[in-house]
Structure to design on (940 residues):
């Protein structure tokens, strides 16, 4: 398991009171997913409704990482809130497309775009696309 | 301490009447208040103090006045009622103020104390001698004295005493008893009793309580108002059953030689002090006669058998306890004032830690000033010397001054008289004794029983703990080592035989653990260790060792091993868990299923479980012909691993089979399956690809839920099918799935697989996919070979389980 040498790094900034921007770096898989989950749970606890996940530093993501994203999505969708994925690497983008998550969870080029999307979501709960 | 005897003034000499001494040194007895008697502890101390005054100069010259300073401190302790440390401070302070040397000042203190006593003694004597009829009493005493001194035997003394001194006092008879070294009394002389009576009472064996014996054991004059009241037997009792009696011990230099017994015909009222004094003086007169009294017959062996002091010193050296040989120390008047420590043996340990040489040769009260105190050691020595009656006491508290601090020591004491000397033994509960006691407690606490077995004599010694270890009364016979097997569990016989062989045959230390079966039915786990003891010829003659009850330890080990068992059980359970999961998967999806037999279609499946137990996952496949004759092909992967993933997989797989019977298309099936996954399974999400092959039209309709798209191998090309839209199962309550459709041609091969086949962390999915496509492209002849090859050359590094379903159109 070479992944043990690549611990996940998660940096949290707050562009606004109800928005958490998490910049993730490292392999997002079964070994590291709980780390991201802990950060997300903490921010949820502090009342954030919008989660912007910058995955530009994640070269690999497996189903565990996927499940974390789906879980926070389920948590915020009724608030109403939103989850945005920012600048995924091609491999992660591929996974998002493969699993169909990108159908429901919007993928943005950068944080500003994601913020703008989040503002729109704030007014009306996002319906899951299909 | 010096052993020289500088001339000194005896304590009471200045108050002694002139002329021949009738009562040397005892004038104060009659009237002095109790506690100031020279024979009382304080009186002894005072006499010692007085005598020491005479020694001051020489002591000073030797610059060794420590004893005097100590004594002065002792006096201050008594006078000021303070502790020794405070007394020492007080002494130093006073010394400074008086501008004297410490020694000089100490002597001053002692003198001051002594002078007080001397004054009291003088007063008492003057009171006694100036009594009204002291004149006539003095005359009588002179007469009796001259008679007694003229007489050469006790009989004559008795006659003279009765005639000259006692009849005027109303007495009718007198008996002079000699105290023999063996504790018996012999009637040395009598007057006023019939010859027959005197013969009958010629001898009183030791320990027979008579009037005379009372005087001896009490060491002071016993005045009995009426003989009848005492109930004591004595000479001439029938003559004057209600008459009064006096039993007065008589001795010289602290040693009692005999008893003077005087009989009155009528009850005797308490006598005035003058009479008491006279009787005491008369008793003293007898002492000189009795001192030289020799037994008439065979009993006159005393001087011969009694060891002289040298022999006693040898004896003391042979003893294993500290021993002191004491000889009486009398003043110039012959009065016993102290005992000189003539010798201490090699085992001697001073409680105050002084070297032996400092104690040896010193006087008892000087070396141990506190011996006169509450411990009464001095009094006991004095009494033993006087009566010859040995004294033994266990756990007697002795107080010794150690650096001015009185330290109480507990000791077993033995005092006995040997000829003219006294042997004092003490066994201090010292370090060794405490260690022995500690060891005993440790053995008890450690449940250790010691034993020693003499193989020649068969003699076996057990300590008390061993008996209780064996559950046998201490009175029972110990169990010899040879019989050990009979007391042990049968299964331990071999271990014990090995133990005995090592010990007795090879003569090496050995140990063994066995179960001891006690007579009370209790089984104890015992460890025995033993070592052989060889004699000078190298022969084994003694075996000694110890048994230890290790039951508690044993049960700890048992508990530990039970825990280990439990752990193993848990591991086994986990193992079974894994096997169960595997069996579940195998039951549902046999790893090598018999290929589905279809016209124009080959179907092959492979399932490869993860190698790591924990990773047994939720991959599934299915290939089944539906009632519509269409073929349902499916590959799925439940997120996560273990039994939960596996059960979810079963739910989804069976649900899909059931749903497929409706005839719905793959998009609709997955939509329903998503609902099932979202609401009905505990697992989070799953991915799946679902296809329906129509064998009549050779068409394939398919949809995917977050899963890798199937790969089509056509000719030398291998391409993944387009990525139709479809989110993974279970993530959202509702989802819709795009369908794809394609026409399959002859020899087309379609591969559906789970990501265990391609997933690699170190390269992109594109890379992995191209590798898969490259492998798939070089299609071997048969579908089965193709699938095997894919598994074999998979470059996956995640050790995930893997499913492959392949169909080939023929």
């Amino acid at each position: 398991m070479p992944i043990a040498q690549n611990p996940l790094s998660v940096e949290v900034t707050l562009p606004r009171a109800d928005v958490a921007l998490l910049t993730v770096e490292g392999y997002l898989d079964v070994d590291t997913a709980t780390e991201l989950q802990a950060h997300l749970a903490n921010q949820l606890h502090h009342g954030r409704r919008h989660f912007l996940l910058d995955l530009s530093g994640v070269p690999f993501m497996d189903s565990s990482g996927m499940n974390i994203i789906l879980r926070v999505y389920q948590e915020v969708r009724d608030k109403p809130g939103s989850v945005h994925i920012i600048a995924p690497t091609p491999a992660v983008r591929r996974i998002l497309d493969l699993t169909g998550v990108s159908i429901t969870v919007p993928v943005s080029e950068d944080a500003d775009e994601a913020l703008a999307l989040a503002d729109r979501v704030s007014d009306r709960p996002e319906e899951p696309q299909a | 301490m010096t052993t020289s005897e500088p001339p000194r003034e005896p304590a009471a000499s200045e108050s002694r009447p002139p002329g021949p001494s009738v009562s040397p040194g005892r004038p104060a007895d009659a009237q002095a208040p109790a506690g100031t008697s020279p024979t009382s502890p304080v009186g002894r101390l005072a006499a010692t103090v007085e005598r020491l005054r005479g020694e001051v100069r020489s002591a000073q010259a030797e610059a060794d006045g420590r004893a005097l300073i100590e004594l002065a401190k002792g006096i201050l302790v008594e006078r000021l009622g303070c502790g020794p440390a405070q007394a020492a401070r007080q002494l130093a302070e006073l010394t400074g103020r008086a501008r004297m040397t410490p020694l000089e000042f100490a002597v001053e203190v002692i003198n001051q104390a002594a002078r007080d006593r001397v004054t009291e003694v003088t007063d008492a004597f003057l009171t006694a001698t100036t009594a009204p009829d002291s004149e006539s009493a003095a005359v009588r005493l002179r007469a009796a004295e001259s008679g007694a001194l003229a007489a050469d035997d006790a009989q004559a003394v008795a006659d003279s005493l009765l005639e000259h001194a006692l009849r005027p006092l109303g007495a009718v008879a007198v008996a002079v008893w000699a105290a023999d070294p063996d504790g018996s009394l012999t009637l040395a002389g009598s007057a006023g009793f019939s010859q027959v009576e005197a013969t009958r009472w010629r001898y009183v064996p030791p320990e027979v309580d008579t009037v005379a014996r009372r005087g001896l054991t009490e060491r002071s004059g016993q005045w009995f108002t009426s003989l009848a009241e005492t109930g004591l037997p004595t000479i001439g009792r029938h003559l004057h059953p209600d008459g009064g009696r006096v039993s007065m011990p008589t001795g010289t230099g602290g040693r009692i030689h005999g008893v003077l017994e005087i009989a009155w015909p009528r009850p005797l009222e308490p006598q005035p002090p003058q009479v008491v004094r006279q009787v005491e003086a008369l008793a003293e007169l007898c002492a000189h006669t009795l001192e030289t009294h020799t037994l008439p017959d065979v009993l006159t062996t005393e001087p011969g058998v009694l060891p002289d002091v040298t022999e006693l010193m040898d004896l003391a050296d042979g003893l294993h306890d500290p021993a002191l040989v004491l000889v009486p120390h009398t003043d110039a008047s012959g009065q016993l004032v102290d005992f000189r420590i003539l010798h201490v043996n090699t085992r001697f340990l001073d409680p105050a830690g002084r070297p032996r040489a400092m104690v040896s040769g010193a006087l008892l009260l000087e070396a141990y000033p506190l011996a006169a105190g509450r411990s009464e050691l001095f009094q006991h020595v004095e009494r033993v010397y006087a009566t010859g009656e040995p004294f033994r006491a266990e756990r007697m508290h002795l107080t010794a001054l150690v650096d001015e601090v009185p330290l109480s020591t507990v000791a077993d004491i033995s005092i006995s008289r040997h000829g003219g000397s006294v042997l004092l033994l003490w066994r201090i509960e010292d370090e060794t004794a405490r260690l022995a006691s500690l060891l005993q407690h440790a053995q008890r606490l450690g449940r250790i029983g010691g034993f020693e077995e003499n193989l020649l004599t068969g003699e076996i010694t057990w300590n008390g703990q061993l008996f209780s270890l064996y559950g046998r009364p201490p009175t029972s016979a110990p169990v010899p080592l040879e019989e050990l097997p009979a007391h042990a569990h049968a299964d331990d016989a071999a271990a014990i035989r090995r133990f005995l062989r090592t010990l007795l045959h090879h003569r090496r230390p050995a140990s063994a653990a066995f179960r001891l079966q006690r007579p009370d039915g209790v089984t104890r786990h015992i460890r025995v260790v033993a070592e052989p003891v060889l004699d000078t010829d190298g022969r084994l003659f003694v075996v000694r060792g110890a048994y230890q009850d290790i039951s508690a330890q044993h049960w700890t080990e048992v508990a530990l091993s039970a825990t280990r068992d439990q752990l193993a059980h848990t591991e086994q359970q986990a193992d079974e868990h894994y096997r169960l999961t595997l069996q579940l998967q195998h039951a549902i999806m046999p790893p090598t299923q018999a290929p589905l037999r279809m016209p124009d279609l080959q179907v092959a499946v492979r399932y490869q479980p993860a190698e790591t137990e924990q990773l047994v996952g939720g991959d599934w496949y299915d290939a089944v012909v539906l009632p519509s004759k269409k073929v349902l092909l499916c590959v799925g992967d439940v997120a996560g691993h273990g039994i939960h993933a596996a059960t979810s997989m079963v739910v989804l797989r069976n649900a899909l089979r059931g749903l497929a019977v409706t005839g719905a298309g793959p998009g609709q099936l997955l939509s329903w399956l998503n609902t099932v996954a979202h609401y009905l399974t505990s697992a989070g999400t799953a991915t799946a690809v679902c296809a329906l092959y129509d064998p009549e039209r050779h068409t394939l309709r398919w949809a995917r839920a977050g899963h890798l798209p199937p790969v089509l191998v056509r000719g030398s090309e291998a391409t993944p099918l387009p990525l139709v839209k479809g989110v993974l199962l279970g993530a959202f309550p509702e989802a819709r799935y795009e369908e794809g459709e394609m026409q399959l041609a002859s020899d087309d091969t379609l591969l559906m697989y789970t990501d265990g086949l391609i997933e690699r962390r170190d390269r992109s999915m594109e890379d992995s996919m191209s590798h898969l496509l490259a492998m798939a492209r070089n299609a071997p002849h048969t579908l089965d070979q193709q699938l095997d090859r894919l598994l074999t050359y998979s470059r996956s590094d995640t050790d995930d389980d893997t499913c492959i379903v392949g169909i080939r159109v023929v």
